[in-house]
Specification:
Elements lengths: L1 E5 L3 H16 L3 E8 L1 H10 L4 E5 L5 H22 L3 E4 L2 H10 L3 E4 L6 H7 L5 E5 L4 H5 L8 E4 L5 H4 L7 H6 L7 E5 L15 H12 L6 E5 L3 H11 L4 E2 L6 H6 L3 E4 L3 H8 L4 E3 L7 H8 L3 E3 L3 H13 L1 H16 L5 H16 L1
Parallel strand pairs: 1-2, 1-4, 2-3, 4-5, 5-6, 6-7, 8-9, 8-11, 9-10, 11-12, 12-13
Helix pairs in contact: 1-16, 3-4, 4-5, 9-14
């Protein structure tokens, strides 16, 4: 079987690289495509993933997103002629559209129904939709897929790479961190995402919050993992020399493993940290997504959008950090005991779709 996979986000690098390895071991041929996008390109280089770069990230403005997507769709057509895939896999509007137009079965792997624009442009054009079990099928059905074409797995996506994680301690030396002092890692918001347009991410409050972290007793080390060049620039202007700013792409799971506290904005790193048993806070400025709500309900994420209250909670946690970490680890272990490997389900479904198509 010939398979083409489109990588759009850092999460897809980790999820789909594991999937490709699984499929290749079964004798299938797999090719990757991606786009010009700082975080993805950097992580692919770090992980040794080879991909054909097609087009670019559209940025923040809707018009630019539309133009970039139209260009990518057009540029993917000759690549399909070259690779002649039997099946495509992605969460990519361009890959879904090209596959549908050329009659190639497309498998959509999606855990983010809150990203409505992407869901509307992929789900109706896909042969199958694969998703974590905690997202109700009726949520997906609203985007134009039948219940029969939804395949669920009992796990969260990050479990696919967290379950076999071999954390690299070199990340501490790489970032100049002292393992004997508390490490608080902060992930900035996805300010360019379509689902966040129009929602205030309170940028000034974020900068003030980081300043508050620096004043906490116990001399915690503050690591900030930004998403965009613009965020790096703002942080450099305000806290140059006071924080550890990840200007280049780093091994996120290893950094989280060695972190004592994580503060996220509702994205994949929050789920990674929670499943690793790291005490995790969410400062996401809007209503929590389904997965974040689930992890909050399980006691693995504490959501607090008020920066003053969040600082007070973190300060209190630093007073008994080992106890907090032990509690989070125990909850995480209890949760993942019932998880299955998402890659088992996805790879099995890929083969089933191919078998039905030939």
């Amino acid at each position: 079987m010939r398979i083409i996979i489109d990588i759009l986000t850092p999460k897809h690098c980790r999820l789909f690289s594991g999937l490709a390895e699984r499929l290749r071991k079964k004798g299938h041929k797999v090719w990757f495509t991606s786009r010009e996008y700082r975080e993805v390109n950097g992580l692919m280089e770090l992980m040794g993933i080879e991909a054909r770069i097609v087009g670019r990230h559209g940025g923040k403005e809707l018009k630019n997103k539309l133009m970039a997507s139209a260009d990518r769709t057009k540029e993917l057509i000759p690549i399909f002629d070259e690779f002649d895939p039997d099946v495509s896999i992605s969460l990519s509007p361009e890959m879904a559209r090209t596959s549908f137009g050329l009659g190639v079965p497309h498998i959509c792997v999606n855990d983010s129904p809150h990203a409505e624009a992407v869901a509307r442009l992929t789900v109706p054009l896909s042969t199958k939709l694969l998703s974590p079990w905690i997202i109700p099928k009726e949520v997906w059905a609203g985007f134009g897929v039948t219940y029969e074409d939804i395949v669920q797995y009992r796990a969260l996506d990050p479990w696919a790479w967290i379950k076999d994680l071999k954390p690299d301690r070199n990340i501490l030396d790489e970032l100049g961190l002292d393992p004997e002092k508390p490490i608080i890692t902060f992930r900035t918001a996805e300010t360019f995402a379509a689902y966040l347009l129009g929602i205030s991410t309170k940028g000034k409050t974020i900068l003030d919050f980081i300043g508050g972290l620096l004043k906490l007793e116990g001399a915690p080390q503050i690591v900030v993992v930004p998403r965009y060049i613009e965020q790096i620039s703002d942080l450099e202007k305000t806290y140059e020399g006071e924080i550890t700013l990840c200007r280049s792409i780093v091994d996120g799971p290893s950094l989280l493993y060695h972190s004592d506290i994580f503060v996220g904005m509702g994205g994949t790193m929050s789920a990674e940290a929670a499943l690793l048993g790291v005490p995790t806070f969410s400062a996401y400025p809007a209503e929590s997504f389904i997965i974040e709500k689930y992890l909050i309900d399980q006691g693995l994420i504490d959501k607090e959008t008020d920066s003053g209250k969040l600082l007070a909670k973190i300060s209190g946690m630093l007073d008994d950090l080992e106890g907090a970490k032990e509690k989070s680890s125990a909850r995480a272990r209890g949760l993942v005991e019932a998880f299955e490997d998402p890659l088992d389900v996805i790879s099995r479904e890929v083969e089933r779709v191919y078998g039905e198509a030939v």
